[in-house]
Design brief:
11 helices; glycosyltransferase activity; single chain; Spore Coat Polysaccharide Biosynthesis Protein SpsA, Chain A; 347 residues; 11 strands; 2 domains; elongated; membrane; two-stranded antiparallel ribbon; alpha/beta; transmembrane helix
Length: 347
């Protein structure tokens, strides 16, 4: 039978054979680690050392694809020096800070491995877990995602994470695994399927779940960050959550419509009550206080509904513009130790 992998049908995509099929035949797999970095100069060398120590004990070759997301500290310098003395490194330098989701997308576009592992550079995603990922993957599982058993983070961040996961799964068409971040192993055909998705507002956890494929979890303890500080402040977390909700659920629009119907019914009922009270019982109609209460209530409902519609509309405008998800300034690979021809735009 001919291999039809990568061909698109009518509105669909036909993926190729799994990367683990070659592993099952005894071939040494090549694993790509995708590492978005932004102002992480202090953490990079420790991360590379930890990864090399782990793969020294595994029957697998590896490449590390660093995506420098417009860092303004010494990250670019550290990565350039590492490329001169450490094999298997690829550095994709973006022209500015596009955000972690875009940087991860760039890494998926530039990696070449049979399987791909998105991982954070701060070592909160323990590289030692990759061995467990590989063992499950070799059994024919396309996606092996890490589930955090223990999270050494602030109480506020843990509470917000729990609220988001449960709230998202309550309204999304395709739920995401609770307590699973981006740390996972994905077969090459899963990555190819993800690369075919061209939306600009990307919520990667949702896209991972949307793609489907056979999946299993590996539980691990998430240690505290060893060095540096997190770049995800409250506003970025809220923005990411909004991208997830708007991108994978239409429930907010339905709630807005339903609320409008309820308010209309309540207004009709109140109107009938006032008419009956005035005509049959001679009760005086309440004036200014009741009028202001009704106006303020209706105004707040309208503004809330417009806000919901605006979130969807803003993202539609972004998609219609068809701007690239990221812009690459340069690509450096340690195999040649020189600057590759830069790709100006990748959509």
């Amino acid at each position: 039978m001919a291999n039809l992998g990568g061909l698109s049908g009518a509105g669909g995509l036909v993926v190729g054979p799994p990367g683990w099929s070659g592993v099952a035949a005894g071939r040494k797999p090549n694993i790509s680690l995708v590492v978005p970095v932004y102002n992480e100069a202090q953490a990079i060398e420790a991360f590379v050392t930890a990864v090399r120590d782990v793969f020294a004990q595994l029957h697998a070759s590896f490449e590390i694809v660093f995506v420098d997301d417009g860092s303004i500290d010494g990250t670019a310098t550290v990565l350039s020096h590492l490329c001169l003395r450490v094999p298997g490194l690829v550095v994709v330098r973006l022209s500015r800070n596009f955000g972690k989701e875009a940087a991860m997308t760039a890494g998926l576009d530039y990696c070449t491995g049979d399987a791909v592992v998105p991982i954070d550079v701060d070592l909160q995603d323990p590289p030692e877990v990759i061995g467990d990922f590989l063992e499950v993957w070799s059994r024919g599982v396309d996606v092996v995602y890490g589930v955090r058993r223990e999270r050494h983070e602030s109480l506020g961040k843990r509470v917000m994470a729990q609220l988001f996961y449960r709230g998202f799964n309550a309204i999304a068409v395709r739920p995401i695994p609770v307590d699973a971040g981006d740390y996972r192993l994905m077969d090459r055909r899963v990555v190819d399927a993800l690369r075919s998705l061209k939306e600009r507002n990307r919520f990667m956890k949702g896209l991972f779940a949307w793609a489907g494929f056979r999946s299993e979890s590996v539980v691990f303890d998430r240690p505290a960050r060893v060095m540096g500080v997190t770049k995800f402040n409250l506003s970025r977390l809220i923005s990411l959550a909004m991208d997830g909700v708007v991108g994978f659920s239409t429930l907010p629009l339905k709630v807005s419509s339903g609320l409008g119907v309820l308010v209309a019914l309540a207004a009709v009922a109140m109107m009938l009550f006032i008419v009956v009270s005035a005509l049959f019982y001679g009760n005086p109609v309440a004036g200014y206080p009741s009028l202001m209460a009704v106006l303020l209530f209706l105004g707040s409902v309208q503004l809330m509904s417009l806000g919901v519609i605006g979130e969807y509309l803003a993202r539609m405008v972004s998609e219609v513009k068809e701007r690239p998800t990221y812009v690459v300034e340069a690509v450096v690979a340690s195999e040649v130790g020189s600057m590759a021809t830069p790709a100006l735009t990748v959509s």
